[in-house]
Amino acid sequence: MIYTVTFSPAIDYTMSLEGKINIGDINRSKSENYTVGGKGINVSILLNNLGTKNVALGFVGGFTGQYIINYLKDKKVKTDFCNIEGNSRINVKLNGKAKETAINANGPKISDQNLKQLLDKIAFNIKDNDTLILAGNVPKNVDTNVYELILEKLKNKRIYIIVDSTKQFLLNTLKYKPFLIKPNLEELEELFDEKVKTKEDIKSHVEKLKKLGARNVLVSCGAEGAYLFSEDNQTFYSATYKGKVVSTVGSGDSMIAGFIDNYLKNKDYKQALEFSIACGAATAFDKEIANKSAILELLERGQKWK
């Protein structure tokens, strides 16, 4: 079984504008859309769209939390959330001409008792050969070692660990030798406070991460595609697909979902990377997380950038 963990699921309220966003003035939208997000939630939705069983874990609260539960139920995503006080967050996404602006809320407070409930749930449910995906950062009131606390509970189990997070949240997990991590270029720079300008820069940063414990490193480069540096010291590259970008929200999460779904079925790094790229692009070309037919359409007929 695959489990995803999202500490702060959210309702993403996206408004699209005809022209550019005018700060300090009234802006009129041409369309609005409500979806449910949060990095782990996005992974769960895409896995479900691919027909792969998974369980979404995390915290929800209030009327917005109930909306999240109902939304995922309608999409037939299995959930096992912990209920907390307060309302789950609402993120606002503004799509103006050629630019996308996001305002992400902090979300409700997670108490020590709430956290213990999640840790106990994870320790009880996850078995050998399962997959755990830790995605995103956590609310400000939760310690940056929280992913470390989760993995400490599981250190004697043989599982696939995937981490898609930043800075200390990611670094704290590396001693547990995660199967896959997925930094983008900006996150690589933040991790080591060094600029990334060339492929050699990427490789140098990745080697540091592997020395710290990462087994496989998937580096997403936006419109420039992605690199996979595998634990058997191979390097793979894939360009991304041509198409009209509707929203980049959830694109990286879709890459994670596509990679682990394909790898667990085929145990082939290059094939998993190619499928991952298609999943990320298909989501970028849609207003929601991509469905299976859109992904397969890209794989069969899509044109890539050279």
Automatic annotation (TrEMBL):
<keyword id="KW-0808">Transferase</keyword>
<dbReference type="Pfam" id="PF00294">
    <property type="entry name" value="PfkB"/>
</dbReference>
<keyword id="KW-0067">ATP-binding</keyword>
<feature type="domain" description="Carbohydrate kinase PfkB">
    <location>
        <begin position="15"/>
        <end position="286"/>
    </location>
</feature>
<dbReference type="InterPro" id="IPR017583">
    <property type="entry name" value="Tagatose/fructose_Pkinase"/>
</dbReference>
<dbReference type="InterPro" id="IPR022463">
    <property type="entry name" value="1-PFruKinase"/>
</dbReference>
<dbReference type="InterPro" id="IPR011611">
    <property type="entry name" value="PfkB_dom"/>
</dbReference>
<keyword id="KW-0547">Nucleotide-binding</keyword>
<dbReference type="GO" id="GO:0016052">
    <property type="term" value="P:carbohydrate catabolic process"/>
</dbReference>
<dbReference type="InterPro" id="IPR002173">
    <property type="entry name" value="Carboh/pur_kinase_PfkB_CS"/>
</dbReference>
<dbReference type="GO" id="GO:0005829">
    <property type="term" value="C:cytosol"/>
</dbReference>
<comment type="function">
    <text>Catalyzes the ATP-dependent phosphorylation of fructose-l-phosphate to fructose-l,6-bisphosphate.</text>
</comment>
<comment type="similarity">
    <text>Belongs to the carbohydrate kinase PfkB family.</text>
</comment>
<protein>
    <recommendedName>
        <fullName>1-phosphofructokinase</fullName>
        <ecNumber>2.7.1.56</ecNumber>
    </recommendedName>
</protein>
<keyword id="KW-0418">Kinase</keyword>
<dbReference type="GO" id="GO:0005524">
    <property type="term" value="F:ATP binding"/>
</dbReference>
<dbReference type="GO" id="GO:0044281">
    <property type="term" value="P:small molecule metabolic process"/>
</dbReference>
<dbReference type="InterPro" id="IPR029056">
    <property type="entry name" value="Ribokinase-like"/>
</dbReference>
<dbReference type="GO" id="GO:0008662">
    <property type="term" value="F:1-phosphofructokinase activity"/>
</dbReference>
